[in-house]
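Mods, move this if it's the wrong board.
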Amino acid sequence: MQILYDYRDYSFPERTSLTIGNFDGLHLGHRQILDDVITTSRNTGTRSLLITFQPHPLEILNPEKAPSMITPGTEKTHLIENLGIDLLLVLRFDQTLSHLSGRCFVKEILSSALRMQHIFVGKNFVFGHQRSGDVNLLRQMAAELDFTVHVIPEIIIRGCRISSTWIRELIQTGRISQANRLLGRYYSLLGPVVSGEGIGRKLLFPTLNLAPANQVIPQSGVYVTLTAIEGQIYPSVSNVGRRPTVSGRNLTIETHVLDIEISSPPAQMELSFVHRLRSEQKFDSIQQLKSQIQMDCQQTRLFFRRLERFHGQQSRPLSRIQMSSGGPVKAGPPD
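Not the wrong board. Structure tokens:
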């Protein structure tokens, strides 16, 4: 996959089959659109093209309403590449682009510069200054500029349309298994490992402390997780919260990797949330907390044993990193 950062850099002789959007999370609805784009490009001899924006348009238009990301830019790029898109155009969203009318965006960028032959959008797609562009405008301009508009039906699960907004809500309210189903993979956080206060190693269990940047944080609680470190993936149990038993104040994401000893903390790690075990709670003593963590670890081991029996010998991708063939557990689809 080739990545462009300026639409004027498109210099191929072929016309394009394209789609436009933020594609945060790259969920099952997004993948349906991209599958259609790729199939059409192969059938028509065009180049498949995905256009997205950096930063998120709301960071420029209404910063207070700009959402935290489900999927960081590097992760999203990797997922898109794995789907087989020919070209990814990352447009810088700034004041100049935000003031371009819908008609000018179609004529100058999509048609003239990117040589669009097919465009795939949802029925509620809007674009351009003051949302002046929509599906009706695209259909009006299609004959004039010789392109075809494809409106993709919504994907409905349990009566609700799959959307990045819905998935954010599910993650933030702890419904991680449902979020995973809509994503088609485990939800993960990626970031540096930072130093904690050392309470876990001294009094409880050694933990790795993750500091993700601008990602959606799951609701406080204890989770069955998978921890990816330097290409290896390990079963783990993670606590998201403020550690009320030890009078913690700041929100932390602490992970205990099961049954291995990590001599020195890695620079970064990826943490994938598989299942929510329980809410965070305050215990009367450190010993009670330690006993509960031991039970959490046992429940996590049991969970993975059941998961491995269910999936048998199947080995599937976990976010950016493949499961090691010799690893202690095989990743599968969300439970």
